[in-house]
Design a protein that fits this description.
252 residues, 6-stranded antiparallel beta sheet, 4-stranded antiparallel beta sheet, 2 helices, 10 strands
Length: 252
């Protein structure tokens, strides 16, 4: 039994290392997300990763068509598509141009101005296939995470190098956190504003419906009162006529 364990242990170690290495090498592809629509696959992501705030980048869309075991890029795929970049409740139309090197690959220039989550909203048709979806892009990061040295310009000086370096390190750590918090708050505020606008619109529609109902009730009430008045007038006229008839009979 010990001989078997000694034989199996190196195999298990090698298998674990291969598995870890394969997961590590596949990890960068997670930044690109793919959705399938019939025999079409649509993949989105950033051309430069990680995407950094304030840096020119390209949101990319790869459209492929599968036929049997063959996959080919779709030329002129976005001709009938409306594509918006979305951040929170804010959207912007993006123009995508085809790549000169790769069929089915399209680039849309963008400078992300806030840290956080972005997505592409796609509506239209590709080769007759209806596309109506929202696909998230990889999260945009702050430049402070990879900037060196500190942008404040502080340098190591004699006798105080440790404190200066520590201050720069703290500045680099705090900056991205604050920027991320502010961006997330801005994102939440945009979403909340959209929700409030929707609620206000629904409230206005409800008030209009109530007013329309009130007007209808008022009209019905007026018609009813007019009918009652006409009925009472008829009764009075009939009573007067009967009274005059009785008087004429007595006189005769």
């Amino acid at each position: 039994m010990q001989v078997k364990m000694q034989f199996l242990l190196p195999i298990l170690v090698i298998f674990t290392l291969v598995l870890v290495f394969s997961l590590y090498t596949v990890r960068p592809a997670d930044a690109h997300l793919t959705k399938k629509f019939g025999n079409l696959s649509v993949t989105v992501g950033w051309s430069n990763e990680p995407a950094l705030v304030g840096e020119l980048n390209n949101a990319i869309i790869q459209v492929n068509q599968t036929s049997g075991k063959t996959t080919t890029g779709v030329i002129n795929a976005l001709a009938n598509m409306n594509i918006l970049a979305k951040y929170g409740g804010v959207t912007k139309s993006i123009d995508f141009v085809p790549s000169e090197q790769t069929d089915g690959l399209y680039n849309g220039k963008m400078i992300p101005t806030r840290v956080g989550s972005y997505s592409l909203v796609m509506n239209g048709t590709i080769q007759g296939q209806k596309i109506n979806t929202e696909i998230p892009l990889d999260e945009v990061q702050g430049k402070q995470q990879i900037s060196f040295p500190d942008s404040s310009g502080s340098s190591d000086v004699a006798g105080g190098g440790g404190s200066a370096t520590g201050a720069a390190s703290n500045s680099n750590n705090v900056g991205p956190q604050l920027q991320g918090i502010v961006s997330q708050l801005s994102n939440d505020i945009d979403s909340t504003k959209n929700s409030i606008d929707t609620m206000a619109k629904n409230n206005a529609d409800t008030q209009k419906s109530i007013q329309d109902l009130k007007n209808a009730v008022d009209r019905t009430y007026m018609i009813g009162m007019a009918g009652i008045g006409a009925g009472i007038a008829g009764i009075v006229i009939a009573s007067v006529a009967l009274s005059r008839k009785d008087i004429l009979k007595v006189s005769s």
